[in-house]
């Protein structure tokens, strides 16, 4: 399986449909957000979980129900608002799945020690947010 250092390098690639590839991280190799993708024919892509490649094909994030914000580009490192669009795309994916899904803070989803920057209003409709000591202000 072909591995790319990060999503930016993946997006420069010309890959064929049916191929599986991996990234070593979202922004930097080893920096969080390593993921597996399936290459499909051109279709809509949000640019956070799924990415349009140089030839128009799309890299589709695999195992989305168990994905983390880091795999969508929300690293939660410094609390800047750069995380907002990625975190919003991540949560909208769960909203589209229906109300039986949960976003869990401190386990496989949102990192309890991360500092996610949200510059805007994040609507959490039909989503349960759970976590020991979780705070939203």
Summarize the entry for a quick read.
This protein is of the alpha/beta class and 137 residues long. Helix content is 15%, strand content 18%.
Helix percent reads: 10-25%
Number of helices: 2
Order of helices and strands: EHEEEEHEE
Tell the overall outline: globular
**What's the arrangement of strands in the largest beta sheet?**
1-2-3-5-4
Count the E strands. Answer: 7
Q: List low-pLDDT spans.
A: 104-108, 130-137
Largest sheet report: 5 strands, mixed
Q: Termini separation (Å)?
A: 43 Å
Class by helix and strand content?
A: alpha/beta
What does it look like?
The chain is of the alpha/beta class. It is 15% helix and 18% strand. The protein contains 2 helices and 7 strands; from the N terminus they run E-H-E-E-E-E-H-E-E. It has helices at residues 7-11, 83-97; strands at 2-4, 20-23, 35-40, 51-52, 58-61, 102-104, 128-130. Strands 1-2-3-5-4 form a 5-stranded mixed beta sheet. It has a two-stranded parallel sheet with strand order 6-7. Strand 4 and strand 5 form a beta hairpin. The longest helix has 15 residues, at 83-97. The model is unreliable at 104-108 and 130-137 (pLDDT under 50).
Topology:
Blueprint: E1 2-4, H1 7-11, E2 20-23, E3 35-40, E4 51-52, E5 58-61, H2 83-97, E6 102-104, E7 128-130
Parallel strand pairs: 1-2, 6-7
Antiparallel strand pairs: 2-3, 3-5, 4-5
